[in-house]
Amino acid sequence: MTMSDLKDYLRKVAAATETTLQEILPGETDYPGSIHQLMRYSIFAGGKRIRPSLLMASFEACGGTFGDQGALKAGAALEMFHTFSLIHDDLPCMDDDDFRRGRPTAHKAFNEALAVLGGDALCIAAFEVLGSLGNIALITEIASALGTNGMLGGQVVDIESEGKTVDRETVEYIHRSKTAALIRASVRMGAIIAGASTEAIEKLSNYGNYIGLAFQVVDDILDEESTTEQLGKDAGSDRERGKATFPAVCGMEESKRYARELTESAWKEIGFLGPKGDLLHQLAEFIITRIS
Q1: I need a surface site. Which of 15, 62, 177, 249 has the fewest CB within 10 A?
Q2: What is the pTM of this model?
Q3: What does the alpha-carbon distance between residue 156 and residue 148 come to, in Å, rounded to a whole number?
Q4: CATH value at residue 212
């Protein structure tokens, strides 16, 4: 599989995910319209739909067939969880960002109170979608990824570390919890839906951990090296707020080396899949090529 093939796959998953989201989200005119407008404004703001793509690639690698409605709905739910986290992450009480994906953040386009409620609404609606699939393991998986041992815990330590001198271990904890946990869950959920073995899920979990951490290390690097126009969000904001990032703690060259090392470790974990793991291999490559 070439990188061109992967980009075609990403577009295919994105299109299928957006069709599913259109079907399951409330309409903009459904009362009360303002919150539904915010939900749709945020979730249809663009993005490559990496998490649904990871879920679908894992699902297919473990024997599933593209287009399965359960996998598509789970992927749409993942995107709802991810968007909820972005809305809240951008709030004035958190990162106070003005732009996301090239346009005003939810609290700027609407207002802060509605952004809080809109993020909550997406999270709750996503659990409702997963509940409709009748697979309790999926709900347990995502709840663990989002809770205080996952994304929320990482966000707490991220906030508490601002402006402080922290060590590499703290930065790794933040990134593994805040970013990698949801990416790992995406990979695991695809395997769970496909009925994969415990051994396969464990190896895919390791793959998810590696690429999830690599993803955030790359994001840290891009925040330093890219413009606001390139990123679609405020560039250089991590440094301005004194965020705990890999470049700040380890330097730029070590950060780039570590991102590549994590990607190579991820590839090793999915070697057991053979050709069936090509999509997952290319997705890991796609993450690292953003800084190549």
Answers
A1: 15
A2: 0.93
A3: 9
A4: 1.10.600.10
